[in-house]
Amino acid sequence: QVQLVESGGGLVQAGGSLRLSCAASGLTFGTYAVGWFRQAPGKEREFVAAISRTGVTTYYADSAKGRFTISRDKAKNTVYLQMDSLQPEDTAVYYCAGNPSIGTTKAIYAYWGQGTQVTVSS
């Protein structure tokens, strides 16, 4: 029953911006922390950003600090990842995931979306 669906990916030039969305069904996002992860070809899935169930606490990977912003709209049951100043090394499939507690490791997250492709050209 639980389903997470990512959207908003696409092809952009270096320096451009995208806003990713993660919509949830089968659960109330307001009771879950949410993380964003990404996986580039031939690489492990890595942490990008996370937000607590209240939205008060946020975590960012060093690669995302100052460029990416995670936020949530509980009324819409949606979490967003605003990505600015995109670089070619940001190219990856981006996934959102939910868990009762916030964390930066993928192993703790119980629910995952199927991902959205982000491609940044130089």
Mean pLDDT: 95
Strand content: over 45%
- Runs in which pLDDT lies below 50 for 5 or more consecutive residues are none
Order of secondary-structure elements: EEEEEEEEEEE
Distance between the termini: 40 Å
Question: What's the β-strand tally?
Answer: 11
What Rg do the Cα atoms give? 13 Å
Number of helices: 0
| Structural classification | mainly beta
Note the overall shape.
globular
Helix percentage: under 10%
How would you summarize what this structure contains?
The chain is mainly beta. Helix content is 0%, strand content 50%.
Describe this structure as you would to a colleague:
- The protein is an all-beta fold.
- The mean pLDDT is 95.
Write the layout of secondary structure elements.
Elements: E1 3-7, E2 10-13, E3 18-25, E4 33-39, E5 46-51, E6 58-60, E7 68-73, E8 78-83, E9 92-99, E10 111-112, E11 116-121
Which key terms come to mind for this protein?
4-stranded antiparallel sheet; mainly beta; 122 residues; 7-stranded mixed sheet
